[in-house]
Design the sequence.
């Protein structure tokens, strides 16, 4: 834990020093924006592999999340098979919902065809 804290402190100090240098060179805002995008990219790059019970692999949270996601996707897939979408292009064979207004119905109402 001590090493991680020191590593973070070194990164913060390096960022501040570089920010001051880039402000002096009149590129401070550009450096800040690039640094923010770098920070976002490195912190959202996926689940972290960790040591759990002496074994290397995905963290317990990542495994539980994957199981929950798989169960959720399976449930959604089953619901999709039972329910029809309001958008006929997503339904099997392009079936429309009962009473759905189509261009043909609209033309019949307007033009009396």
Sequence:
């Amino acid at each position: 834990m001590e090493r991680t804290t020191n590593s973070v402190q070194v990164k913060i100090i390096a960022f501040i020093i570089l920010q001051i240098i880039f402000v002096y060179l009149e590129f401070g805002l550009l450096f800040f924006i690039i640094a923010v995008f770098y920070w976002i990219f490195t912190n959202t790059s996926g689940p972290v592999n960790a040591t759990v019970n002496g074994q290397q692999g995905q963290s317990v949270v990542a495994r539980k999340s994957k199981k929950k996601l798989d169960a959720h996707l399976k449930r959604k897939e089953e619901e999709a098979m039972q329910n029809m979408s309001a958008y006929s292009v997503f339904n099997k064979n392009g079936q429309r919902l009962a009473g759905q207004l189509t261009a043909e119905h609209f033309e019949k109402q307007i033009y009396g065809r």
Summary: Helices lie at 2-24, 28-43, 60-82, 103-111. The mean pLDDT is 78. The chain has four helices and two strands. The beta strands are 49-52, 55-58.
